Known about the structure:
Structural class: alpha/beta
Distance between the termini: 36 Å
Oligomer: single chain
Number of strands: 8
CATH topology: Spore Coat Polysaccharide Biosynthesis Protein SpsA, Chain A
Radius of gyration: 16 Å
CATH superfamily: Spore Coat Polysaccharide Biosynthesis Protein SpsA, Chain A
CATH architecture: Alpha-Beta Complex
Order of helices and strands: EHHEHEHEEEHEHHEHHH
Number of domains: 1
Helix content: 40-55%
Mean pLDDT: 88
Amino acid sequence: xxxxxxxxxxxxxxxxxxxxxxxxxxxxxxxxxxxxxxxxxxxxxxxxxxxxxxxxxxxxxxxxxxxxxxxxxxxxxxxxxxxxxxxxxxxxxxxxxxxxxxxxxxxxxxxxxxxxxxxxxxxxxxxxxxxxxxxxxxxxxxxxxxxxxxxxxxxxxxxxxxxxxxxxxxxxxxxxxxxxxxxxxxxxxxxxxxxxxxxxxxxxxxxxxxxxxxxxxxxxxxxx
Length: 224
């Protein structure tokens, strides 16, 4: 079984589309879990009929994803952001991994949802960088065998960079990820709202600060 875990916070505008693409997966016997971090909109009520389990937890993606993993029944844990849309039947690419795969974790390539040429360049750079570095971002739909996830202690309790942190620990524990070229579409709303160049500068500045030892709590404030 694959258990898909989706953390949410005020995602009423996007969550139904995200979950609709996962309904064939549920019909084939896989599990979809939503963990809400205290939404003030109708996210939870919209999502509840479309998932196998709907939980509430403290806000924070790491906290929410750990909570979902704690009740998951699947052999493979698949972590999706609420604003990441998947092509129907994407999970069929993951099912063979339950039978035969030498990799213990992996991620997909991504496509940004906007139509600007600059976004095409950015998404290619993100996918290329991830393949070279072995570092995955949450937008890329990270999947991990349950045994491996439990062995490394899950996501670290941190308000930002939890995806970078777990990628680094997974690389040390089990090697490079399986990089699937199949694309998930993630929202480009931040890029469009704040501008492409300012967003690039912000993300790289935060990553550099993190690599140099800055507190994730301080970085989270700057990110928001």
